[in-house]
User: What shape does this take?
Amino acid sequence: MQRKKRPEELRSHRWYGAPGRKTFDHRSRSAQMGYDKGDYAGKPVIAIVNTWSDINPRHAHFRQRAEEVKRGVWQAGGFPVEMPAITLSEPFQKPSTMMYRNLLAMETEELLRSYPADGCVLMGGCDKTTPALVMGALSMGLPAIYLPAGPMLRGNWHGQVLGSGSDTRKYWAELRAGTITENDWEEIEEGIARSPGHCMTMGTASTMTSAVEALGLALPGSASIPAADSHHPKMATAVGRRAVELVWEDATPASLLTRASFDNAVICVLACGGSTNAVIHLIAMARRAGIGLDLERFDALSRKVPVIANLRPSGKYLMEDFYYAGGLRALLSSIRDLLDLNARTVSGKTLGENLEGAKLFNAEVILPREKALVPSGGLAVLRGNLAPDGAIIKPAAAEPRLLQHKGRAVVFEDYNDLQGRIDDAALDVDADSVIVLRNAGPIGAPGMPEWEVPIPKKLLQKGVRDMVRISDARMSGTAYGCCVLHVAPESYVGGPLALVKTGDVIELDVPRRRLQVLVDDAELTRRKRDWRAPARRFQRGYGALFSQHIRQANEGCDFDFLEGTAPTPEPEIH
Assistant: This one.
């Protein structure tokens, strides 16, 4: 039987329980806030890291959810302390929430280290928030449990179901093509996001919350619950109760997570048809845990995992449908043979035990394997002279005819160049062209934004809805199309994408996992010799820190000094 930690062994005991003048200060200031010694003495202090903000609609319900977490902490005999952290609001933060993912990770780690926390609840959901919170908690090493924000309700326009992100891009293309009116577009704007919660497609948010549940850091079934469903606040209270138990059990992430745990998370992402962004985030999270995870592992697992979540953008349905079809537990249960069921989780049970009794209620939403959207290879890692360190494509989101393709490059120097020329009627482009966007990577953009490359307007008007596009940017998990992303190394630091010229022929061969510019090595060497590094974007502040220490996409885009498991001293109490 596992030994329960004694009250005097709690980390917070050094702040509250030990004799001395400083602990007098801690207790007296707690009294100043209206707390009695009996509220916290000898009890686990649970830090509730809350990313609520007025500027983040996806977390609009987190003020109330924090109170429901506190209820669970009190019920279990703990002492809840809410700690606000920077919000990463996908619609509003510029140039990219990805630029600030590592800042939230640092803040989470340092909040937990510098205050008297024994364990923590991580409240997130909006895209980069999830990996940031987990990265910080992994580095700190306290018992941690994740509370997912939950997806918003389905959108609606004239009786048509709308999916956030995916249908925004779809109808923006139709507006530019002239098939819908400005009035239609305004009505779609009013109906596409109808409740708190993150995107209800299988975008980055739902991908990452699902991955963290499969990883073992969230309660079973929690990632699928819609934010507006009454089961969501009940789940929040259960998370608070469990956080206290994790402290007594000393169940730190290091004691739970293994290489197999991360394989489970990757397999979950692949079976869901999840966002390509998960590749970057899971690599960064694994490195924080001291576990090796690379692009080759994603590609190897992808070759045997079917895409069975019939969810947009790859499929038909939305997360609300997914939940009522049985949710993530039903999906994982249907691929049990691919998972390590002995992996431990924050529930106190193994993944296999968490999946016992899971039921599937709609086989149109969670497909049987023989009817998978994609039998295998839902994500592919490409290499070649354009991407020596790798690039990513989601074949399920592309028109099949484009997966083996040669075309003439049409190069855009940066996003401003793209915006200025993509709809120019004089642009020399056709449906077979390969559009290249560069200087959009971690340092070049900066922050590797989700800069989708649209179809040129004159091609949209001819009925073209997909073509090969290549960039060193990311793309929203809610987007679709034949887009090669995360090209590494990025063009801004002299990666081969910087050497491509308009008119060069580019070959994409997904079955062979190849991405090549058909230019001989001698010419590429000459172009490399003539290339000049651009000036630094930032001379001071967080931008300078970011530019000096950010890793490339294939390495997870973490800061080099934050990776690994080197210990950081505990603060002195004096």
